[in-house]
Amino acid sequence: MGILGSGVRDGLQLKPVRYDWAYRLYNQAVANTWFPNEVQLSQDLADFEKLSEDEKHALKTVISYLNPNELLINKSLAFGIYPCVNAAECHLYLSKQMWEEANHFMTFEYIIETFPFDREEIYAAGWGKKSLADKAAFQTKYVTRMMEERPDVTTLEGKKDFVRNLVAYNIVLEGIWFYSGFMVGMSFRRRNLLRNVGTLLDWVTKD
Is the pTM value of this prediction over 0.85? Predict the structure, then answer.
């Protein structure tokens, strides 16, 4: 049996493990479990007051983009990837990854709740700028395909479509756009500012 498939009763037995790499990733992810409130942000809150208005704007824009898109990634995993995979060890890892994405979302919620941010302004900023709106349109297109037009992974065309969806989310969104945002957030740490926010971003990227 291949790694892709959609049989309801397929992939319900873990042993013997067929994909050692997936089982190793699952166990590694479990060992790496963390929670955002393990990091105190009181010093970062004091640092925030030292930032220029442009720097505050940059931080708000980054958070406004990362926060909702963590849940969008969760949707892509839940509706676009998990149902197309057969192996139990892959299901385990994807389940842990979905938990991690929820934890990342709560990490950015923690930052929003700690800093003097207007929540409605933060939410609006994530969709109000043309560059971010264009990215949102791209992402929405693919998550809609994943949810409403699930590929038939038993066919060659379906497998190609599945890979396109993976590229759209795992490479374009997470691998390029997210890391661009992380770079902005981490850049403050080079000036000894927002060091604990930087730690949280380190943990997110480590996942």
Answer: yes
